[in-house]
């Protein structure tokens, strides 16, 4: 049976964007932090992370590889649907892509955001960006729907379960049994977590449900329940503003004091190996492990894992059926329900005051 994507005539991948050469770094950081109150010293420090990698973030190449994999998955499934890509902070910018979609005659597109969880940064801010880009293009811009959050979709979770198992297998036999699993995500201000989702606290709750589910699956596969925590990386902002803790490095110090000799770092908050992963985890946290005499193995991100890639088709066909008024079964794992299609009023509120956004009731 040929899969039915109607009423959609395209998929739009919506992402963060990153610099591709040294001259891009400062203008990119200006785009990211415009009006966000990030201290100058923090910006200089983050700029150095990019320069350490030749002024090029891996994120755009990761998105190109992901799009190629999704196109191949569509093709082999008989789904004839073009895939477009637009970013919040760097070329290709959302408005430019929407203009191209309009010229190509795209009337309606489903958007997949490269952020799996609810928060202002990972959800509403992208919805505001979509509103602004549609407004910029004006008459004839495609109508956009945002595909639901996928933190608890089996395509994402299964990929992370296997990545965790592979990372554990890499540890030395002498330390594996006592290894500690650190599920890592991007820190956000505690106030941003408190405002996330329709009732608040969704950012942390969603990560805890993914961590629990991976822990259960690892126990089934290995017969061992590993000690674990949810920890955070990439804290930004002004020092007096509270952000989610503990930081991954601080937690490793504590664990080392308690005699832990090995950690597996599982980046559940990130869907590909971008700068937070290759700098904050593979460079900084790895150096902390070295200093503490601990073994550290970092689990792979979902990247182009075939299950994660085919999840996109599943979410797209599910939403297409919903839009056609059909009943759907929504794949999900763990304690939380499958996420909503359209964000409820107030969901992931913008703490600087309301701004127009697409794909929500407000
Ligand atoms: C929750 C979350 C995700 C995960 C969800 C998702 O994936 O979207 C994420 C992803 C990313 N964040 C990224 C880069 C940056 N984030 C920054 C700043 C901030 N991030 C925040 C949150 C998040 N960020 C927040 C609350 C701030 C403070 C400023 C503000 O309130 O807006 C800054 C400014 C410098 C700094 O302060 O670190 C940079 C450069 C890149 C690109 C990496 C690359 O280039 O490879 C990616 C994928
Ligand atoms: Fe960020």
Your description of this structure?
- This protein folds into two domains: 10-150 and 304-323, Rossmann fold, CATH 3.40.50.1400; 154-298, 3-Layer(aba) Sandwich (Rossmann fold).
- The strands form two sheets. It has a four-stranded parallel β-sheet with strand order 2-1-3-4, sandwiched between helices. A four-stranded parallel β-sheet has the order 6-5-7-8, with helices on both faces.
- Helix content is 45%, strand content 12%.
- The chain has helices at 22-33, 40-52, 59-76, 94-103, 120-137, 154-170, 173-176, 190-194, 202-222, 248-257, 275-292, 306-323, and strands spanning 10-15, 83-87, 108-113, 143-146, 180-186, 227-233, 262-266, 295-298.
- The protein is globular.
- With 362 residues, the protein is of the alpha/beta class.
- The site of coproporphyrin III has 25 residues, from helix 1, helix 2, helix 5 and helix 11.
- Keywords: Cytoplasm, Heme biosynthesis, Iron, Lyase, Metal-binding, Porphyrin biosynthesis.
- It is found in: Cytoplasm.
- It is an enzyme of class 4 (lyase).
- Fe(2+) binds at residues 186, 276.
- InterPro entries: Ferrochelatase, Ferrochelatase_C, Ferrochelatase_N.
